[in-house]
Amino acid sequence: MELKQVIGNRRSMRFLRNYAPVEREKIQKMLEAARLASHWGNVQALRAVVIERASAPEEVIKALPVGTAIAGFQFRSAPVVIVWYIDWTALPKQGDRLHELVDAGAMGVNREKTHKYLDETLIPFFDGAMDQIKVSGINELDAGQAIAQATLVAFDEGLGTCCLGLPSDRKLRRALKLPPDTKIVLLQTVGYPAEDARAGGQRPRIPFDEAFKLNTADNPFPRDPAVVEELRAAGMIQAAGRLPYRDAELRWLQEQYGLSEVFGDPEEIGNIMTEMMEAMQEEQAAAEQKQAANK
Ligand SMILES: Cc1cc2nc3c(=O)[nH]c(=O)nc-3n(C[C@H](O)[C@H](O)[C@H](O)COP(=O)(O)O)c2cc1C
Predict the structure, then answer these.
(1) 68 lines ligand 1 (CB under 6 A)
(2) Which of 168, 180, 160 is nearest to 65 (CA)?
(3) In what order do the strands lie in the sheet with 160-164?
């Protein structure tokens, strides 16, 4: 498939076929794509644990959060869940990564001088700013870029995925044996879609000129209708949902997955939301306590 078509067809697929295993090679291709993504200073702090329903220990499957927002049924139906996380211990090794960049021909004409500049100026600067870098969001941005690349590969391979937030991670961290100095950023379900490839059509987006400007923030970037037409013809820009039979499709999916009329409503997930709020508050309090003890 052409890249433009892949982008056009990419949609959050919440309904996957839990009986259809995903070939390991396809998951590997997603991970290979993530590995090649850009990272600030080439730090590469992104890690992932692939949970394969068919082979994972029971305690790992049980640790998947069954009730996040509308995500409970999504975990139940996914043959694979990728847990993307940041390894903070990668950050202090940033100097090594920068020196590698010099040797790879990515920085500076004079190799020797560039190594020296790194050691004397750039690396001490980054080392001094590491605490701020950690909270700046830039590592999460790296993760987002890598996950986006993996997602496009998944669609190119005929798979569907959905990104899911994780408000409370203690149970999952324990089951996955994640090292302490790490942060889970996102869970991503992967499988063969049970819904139509168009999943009801393109989801709503805010107008192009509301989001994108030229030269100054008050000047909309001119949107050329000919380019829009070209992208439409290439399959990137597609008809907005909901498509004519989406309601019938949703009713069918509701029946197949045993969901209530509002996916994820209290009828379906009971008091899980309350339990999750409590767990979040507990985790927050524990983090604050730890911070205070470290001061
Ligand atoms: C970082 C991130 C977190 C998300 N978390 C959730 C989630 O917890 N539950 C969910 O159902 N969808 C989640 N989504 C999917 C979005 O709701 C979805 O991308 C959005 O509705 C637009 O639909 P589209 O992806 O089909 O274009 C998440 C997406 C991203 C990028």
Answers:
(1) yes
(2) 168
(3) 46-52, 80-87, 182-191, 160-164
Segments making up each domain of the chain, as ranges? 3-202+238-288
Predicted TM-score (pTM) of this structure: 0.92
Distance 30 CA to ligand 1 centre (A): 18
Ligand 1 proximity of 205 Cβ (cutoff 6 Å): no
pLDDT digits (tens, 9 = 90+) for 195-206: 999 999 999 999
Distance 71 CA to ligand 1 centre (A): 10
Q: How far apart are CA 284 and CA 289, in angstroms?
A: 9
Q: At which residue do the structure tokens 């211990």 appear?
A: 89
Mean of pLDDT values over 249-274: 76
Fold type of domain 3-202+238-288: NADH Oxidase (3.40.109)
Cα dihedral sign, 110-104-48-37: positive
